[in-house]
Amino acid sequence: MKFYTRLPQSLKPYYNKELQNYAEAYAIGHLQIAWQHLERAHIIGQRYPFAHSYVHWKMLQFGFRIKSAKEVFGQIPRLVFGGVKSFVGKVPVGNPGGANVPPLKPFPIAEDLQQLFKNAGIAS
Questions:
Q1: How distant, in Å, are the alpha carbons of 3, 19, 27, 32, 92 from that of 89?
Q2: pTM exceeding 0.85
C-alpha cells in the first residue's frame, strides 16, 4: 500500500494559486468565486493529507463566515477524516469537498484541472 504525505512540488504552484485566488476573492466579498477556488484547491490537494486537511479547514472557516450550519457541520467530519483517507490513498477523486456533495462520491475532473495534473506529471 502506498502512503501519501505531502503535495508534490509539481502541484504546489497550482494549489497555492487556487488558495491565493480564494483569499483575494474572499477579501473583496466575491464569496461564490472564492468558494470555487476552494473547491479547485480541494481537488488538487485531496490526495495529500496536509493539503487536503488545510482546504477543509478553510471551508470550515468559510462556513462560519457565511453562517451556514450545514457547511460548518459538514466540514467537521471531513476535516477529521479527510486527511486520513488521503494518507492511505482512498479519496473520491474529483470530489469538490463541500457539504453540498456526498463526501465519498467521486466526480469528473474538469478538463483544465486534468491538464494541470498532466502538466505536473501526476495521473488524475
A1: 7, 23, 34, 30, 10
A2: yes
29: left (phi over 0), alpha (psi -120 to 50) or beta: left
Question: Cell for 5?
Answer: 504525505
Please name the amino acid found at residue 34.
A
Q: Which amino acid is at 68?
A: S
Choice between 74 and 87, residue whose per-residue pLDDT is larger: 74
Least confident of 59-63, 71-75, 117-121: 117-121
- How confident is the model at residue 122, as a pLDDT? 85
* φ/ψ (deg, to 5) at 101: -130, 150
| Angstrom distance (rounded) from CA 9 to CA 58 | 21
3-state SS class at 2 = coil
Instruction: At 110, list the grid cell.
Output: 474538469
Residue 115 pLDDT more than 80? yes
Q: What is the DSSP letter of 67?
A: T
Look-up: residue for cell 501519501?
4
Q: Are 118 and 124 in contact (CB under 8 A)?
A: yes
